[in-house]
Task: structure prediction
Amino acid sequence: MGIISKVHPVRSHSNAAQGGINAALQPEDSWESHAYDTVKGSDFLGDQDAIEIMCREAPEEILHLEHLGVTFHRNEEGQLGTRAFGGASAARTYYVADITGQAILHVLYEQLMKHEEVERFEEWFTTALVKDDAGRIAGAVTRNIRDGSLELFSARAVIVATGGNGQLFSPTTNALICTGDGIAMAYRAGAPLMDMEMVQYHPTTLAGLGLLITEGARGEGAHLYNAQGERFMEKYAPNKMELASRDVVSRAEQTEIDEGRGFPDGTVALDITVVPRKRIHEALREIVNVGRDFAGVDITREPIHIKPGNHYVMGGVKTDINGQTGVPGLYAAGECACISVHGGNRLGANSLLDTLIFGRRSGQHAAASGRGLPVPEPAKAELAAEREMIDSIVSRERSGRRVSELKAEMGAVMDKDCSVFRDEGRLQGALEVIKRLQEEVTTVAVDDKGSVFNQDVLGVLELQFMLDNAECTLVGALERRESRGAQFRTDFPERNDGEWLKHINLTANGDVPAVSFSEVTMTQWQPEERKY
Amino acid sequence: MSDFTLKIRRYDPESGEPAFWHEYPVDLPPERSVLDGILQIKDREDASLAIRCSCRAAICGSCGVRINGKSALACNTRISDAARRAGPGKPIVVEPMGNMPVLKDLIVDMDAVHWKKIMRVVPWLLPAGEPPEREYTVPAEAMIDVTQSMACIQCGVCVSACLSLEVDPQFVGPAALAKAYRFVGDPRDGQTEERLRDLAEDPHGIYDCTHCFACIEVCPKDVAPMSQIMRLRRRATGDFEIKDSNNGYGHERGFVNIIERWGTLHEAQVLPRSFGEGSFVKGQVKPSAVKQLAETLPTALRGLRSGKVTPKKVIVHPKLPDQARVRKVMHTIESKPRLELNLYIVGDNSGEEQGAMAEGSQEL
Ligand SMILES: Cc1cc2nc3c(=O)[nH]c(=O)nc-3n(C[C@H](O)[C@H](O)[C@H](O)COP(=O)(O)OP(=O)(O)OC[C@H]3O[C@@H](n4cnc5c(N)ncnc54)[C@H](O)[C@@H]3O)c2cc1C
Ligand code: SF4
Ligand code: SF4
Ligand code: FES
Result:
């Protein structure tokens, strides 16, 4: 058993989750309530069997983490204490100060250090998944970043848990490593992707850098203003104002910006100064730091410019409730997977939970079904092919644009034409750009010709992964001719349950992905109008 | 946009050449980070320049370097601040972290030093017996207390800055000892005494720290490793009477008194106070203490020389603006059993409670 990670595991992006993790563990709460909130939040595109499993198993998972050593916040009695979270009907979010994801990730790494029987390949970069002749997964080709050597790992089962793909968009709240590698590798290996068009935009991200300003600011009473000094949410959500649901606020902001009432840098202003200073320092400490360190703004004295920004991908590699993908022996879990528990819109603090529950289920299923199977012999030709591909990138002479220029063009077009508002024309235009970049990336050259920590060549591989992701996102967005959850089509502004209460599946098929559909699994909740 | 110059130490292990310096111009808004500058160089000029980075927000712990000689995260050092500290007309000097071997450019071998030391402290929970059916019932304060060391992102910046490590590479070091406190301070752990005894008896353990404050000063997450080391010592001597041949306990008491009075550490006072049971006047100077004091002096001097204790700092030691609060926190804390000063908490308990609620009442 081995674990491969392109960065040291504690550098993984799960660190960024500050808020917490949901579970109906308090006696007055119920898993049904958690499940209903999740179904509703998903705009009824979530699969209810998977959601039920997640919400039923959540309390057990929290206790397991607690026993491993996560320093969860306690109440006065010394028992696990909760905080309230948006979109939830009970306070069921467990947390560790403002470092929940980090605390969980680091405690899980403690366990990895303890269990030496799990071999760790830290700073190893997987470039491709390999199958055997029968079409079953047989292993992966992986590059040791430290010395540049390429190895063929054979495996009875492979679980892809490579996280999100926020770097397709510029800016994004996601870290630089979130490049959708596993989504692209699984897709290339023949596994269908699902609901790739469902990309969450968060209402308050820093202009330029894309760093997240938590909704805590608005929770504390901060206001949103356009450049004319109007508190514009009055027009869009007179009752809930700034605290309307995330997609509503993002759409409102984008409308202001698009109609010329934003600031020249394409933003609106978040005014936190209305919150008492003392309260800011107590409750919004992290944002004070982010404002100071990353925007040069003292949020206690002046408004900060923000805009909707890319945050999370609900879609991903299609799996069943045990993490199995369309390729035998290949599993997916975490943000790269689409089971789907998040449907059209992810509920806050459900993502870490999804990652943990279905990560464990995938592991258990893979172990049980892989046991007894012979160790496969992946085709050596794959290793040679990957080596040749990498060598050709490294040896190529520069003839055109830099990797960074291609990446910047992709990020800009995705953010411009495949974000809060979408329509057929813009999506088509973006798809053409992506298609052109897919061509251009095959000719791109690198500066680094070495083997040791050649981040340059890995950047090319990541860009290729991202372009595959981008293509699928655009194809899915074009296909779904309705507005649901995070997808808002100005040319189809209504939700259309009659035709579109279904998942969009994409399978690699030469030049363009093959599109098919699958049913949304419903157990006890029928679609209804979504009002908060 | 402003123009800055980054002078970066380059090293390519495959070239057979020694490390060399190279200057790069970058233009960035002043509030952007040194990491943004480095990424701009990679994007525009030379993508072979190697640095680990991911989050760009002081969360992942990848981008530790030395900037103008000072260990820091590149992503939370503002480029204009770095330029100001470099001095007019001088480039911002960026080099890899210290105390760890360089692998390439700004990348050091964390496994060979940092992670090896982390492994040294048995970095996982060792509960006594089987876990309970529900959660362990433990005081809320205890969880908050260990959360300060839990906030460590394993960036190695303190390891890079540690003076003791420079002198004794075998020293367990600030990050690993902070990690040790994460278990010692955790009521769920069943090996508290064994852990303390182990680290007290190791000549490179908790008494190998020379109190240079460097780790406290450079840590980007306010983990305050030296304070965690102090707590380990206090628990070793106070709770388990593990012999302390180096007068660590007295030193510690002086330290606490100063914090209470001044809010931050007044380095010039720590040494005298620690040998006088917390006050100059009461101080009854034992012969062993004199010897100790003399032995520790070079540390203080070194602090002076490296700018960690500036003469100005010694003379005027401004109280923190919220000094009343610090004292309040300390008194609240001291009135409760076992809870110690936690620099992670600002504000009183109720504030923290509300703050936590407020921050969480929204998803991220
Ligand atoms: C700013 C922010 C705040 C958030 N807050 C919350 C919150 O409060 N609550 C919540 O529930 N969720 C939150 N989320 C979402 C949540 O953090 C993520 O969805 C979740 O952590 C993803 O976990 P993961 O294990 O799937 O991926 P990651 O943690 O990103 O891990 C991916 C792993 O795959 C490895 N990898 C990737 N590609 C390769 C390759 N080619 N070869 C080898 N290894 C590879 C990486 O090295 C890494 O170790 C937040 C997200 C962001 C961006
Ligand atoms: S205070 Fe101690 S642990 Fe911290 S840097 Fe100085 S010698 Fe190292
Ligand atoms: S204690 Fe601070 S400086 Fe040291 S590794 Fe942890 S976060 Fe980094
Ligand atoms: S890039 Fe993550 S800590 Fe600097």
Notes: Confidence is low (pLDDT under 50) at residues 262-364 of chain B. Chain B is about 45% helix and 10% strand. The beta strands of chain B are 2-10, 20-28, 64-67, 70-73, 92-95, 102-104, 107-108. Residues B 161-164, 174, 209-215, 225-226, 229 surround iron/sulfur cluster (ligand 2) (CB under 6 Å).
